[in-house]
Amino acid sequence: MRDSEADLIASESGLRELRDMYYSENPRFFVAVDCIIFGLVEGKLCLLLTKRKFEPEKGKWSVMGGFVQEMESADDAARRVLNQLTGLQDVYMEQVRAFGDVDRDPGERVISLAYFAMLGPEEFDVDLLAVIHAGGTDNLGDHDALRAVDDEGAGVGHQGEVPHED
Predict the structure, then answer these.
(1) How far apart are CA 132 and CA 47, in angstroms?
(2) C-alpha torsion 81→92→49→30, nearest 10
(3) pTM of the model
(4) Bridge partner residues of 94 (DSSP)
(5) Torsion of the alpha carbons at 16, 17, 22 and 24, rounded to the nearest 10
(6) What's the angle, vertex CA 94, arms to CA 91 and CA 100, rounded to 5?
(7) CA 9, CA 3: separation in Å to the nearest integer?
(8) How far from 101 is each of 4, 5, 110, 146, CA to CA, in Å?
(9) pLDDT of 62-121, one tens digit each?
(10) Would you tell me how many other CB atoms lie within 10 Å of the CB of residue 137?
(11) How would you class 48 by CB atoms within 10 Å of its CB: exposed for 0-12, middle for 13-18, buried for 19 or more?
(12) Are 138 and 157 a contacting pair, CB within 8 Å?
C-alpha cells in the first residue's frame, strides 16, 4: 500500500475517496435472499409460501425473500426476512445456491442467494403451506429458489394446485 493510500484510509473522507477511486467504475446491483422452508404436515412434505405484498407479481404465491441491507450479512438478512414474513425465529438455514442471470428479475439487476430449511410439525403456520411431493417443481412456477432445491436433489414438486388467490 502506498503512503498516500494509507493517509486516505486514516480519515472518513479518505475512505470515500478510495471507494470512489476503486469501486465507482463497477456497476452496482441488488443482493437478495430467498428462504425455501419445508415442513411436514400429517406426513406430507409442504413448502412454506406467502402472497407477495408488492410488485412485481403482487398477490402471487412466493417463497419468502427480500434484500440484503447495507450493514447486514446475507445470513442475517435471511433470518430477518423469514422472521418479518412468518414470525419464525431461530431457524437453522443452509445457503444452497446463488442465482445471477442478468435478466432474472424484471425490475433491476438482482443476485439472489437461496437458503433452505426443514421444520418439524407445529413449528410454522399451516395456512402458509402448499402440499408438495417428490417429482419436480413444474407447477410451482419459474422461481430460481425452487429450482435450487430441485437441483440439489431434493426432488421438490407440487401436488395439486397452489392455494387459490383471493
Answers:
(1) 7
(2) 40
(3) 0.69
(4) 116
(5) 70
(6) 125
(7) 10
(8) 39, 35, 8, 15
(9) 888 999 999 999 999 999 999 998 888 899 999 999 999 998 888 889 999 999 999 887
(10) 22
(11) buried
(12) yes
